[in-house]
Structure formats: structure tokens, C-alpha cells
Amino acid sequence: YLDCYAYDVGNVHIIVMSTEHDFTKGSSQYHHIQDLLLNVNRTQTPWLIFVGHRPMYCDNVDYHDPSGVQTVGRMLRDNLEPLLMESKVNLALWGHHHSYQRTCPVYKEKCTKGAPIHAVIGMAGQ
After folding, report:
1. Mean pLDDT score of the chain, rounded to an integer?
2. Catalytic site residue 64?
């Protein structure tokens, strides 16, 4: 698969997806992400980090279709957020927006215990 992959660093399992390719339910990338998330050995890698370029959560006002930050964020939330929650992802790292931002553990736009923490770490470009 060219659209996503996974690797381990010590006791951390990292899954990297492409936000530039189809990730909607039913797509090949969606199924690959689902498979990667379902097959994490949490005994060997208790920490699970999910990574993508465009952010699922971002304090930005770009609603332009079809590739605005908020438009893509909504698509990520609609299609992948339930998988991240079900798989107990600890941290989701994103880029694209040239800033640093972080959330509380969040699910469906609300602070939720046990949900992933999201961080936008795109500040290198500024």
C-alpha cells in the first residue's frame, strides 16, 4: 500500500496515512487503516500514534471546498474518527497548517475521556 503504512519505535506503534488520497469508508486506504488499527499488539506496543498531513482538528477558518482545512477535517472526522476511538489511539499528529495546536482528548468535537489527543505540529514551515 502506498497510501498508508505502520512501524514500531520501541513500545510505540505508529500508523501513517495519506490525507491526499481517498480515505473515505469503503476505499482501499480506509480498509488498510482499519486493518492496521485492529491488528496492533498493545502488549508489545501499548502506545498508538496516528499520523496524517491535513488535520482532523484545527483552529482555522478555511472552509473552501474541496480541500479546505475544515472541509478535509470534517471528512476525516466523519470517516476515520470512530476507528481512532475504537482502537484507543493515544495521540494523533497532523501537519499542513503552519502552527502548533493541541486538543484535550477529543471525540466528535467534545472533550472525552479515553479519546485521542490531537496535535497540529506544522510549525516548521514558519
Report:
1. 89
2. yes
- How far apart CA 5 and CA 51 sit, in angstroms, is 10
d(CA 100, CA 102): 7
What string of DSSP letters covers the chain? --SEEEEEETTEEEEEE-TTS--STTSHHHHHHHHHHHT--TTT--EEEEEESS-SS-------TTT-HHHHHHHHHHHTHHHHHHTT--EEEE-SSSSEEEEEEEETTEE-TTSPEEEEE-GGG-
Check residue 1 and give its pLDDT.
57
- pLDDT surpasses 60 at 126: no
Which residue out of 21, 31, 64, 98 is catalytically annotated?
Answer: 64
Quote the CA–CA distance of 69 and 13 in Å, as a whole number. 26
List the Cα angle 77/53/6 in 5-degree steps.
90
Q: What is the pLDDT of residue 67?
A: 63
Q: What is the largest CA-CA distance in the chain?
A: 42
What's the rounded Cα separation, in Å, for the pair 28 and 63? 26
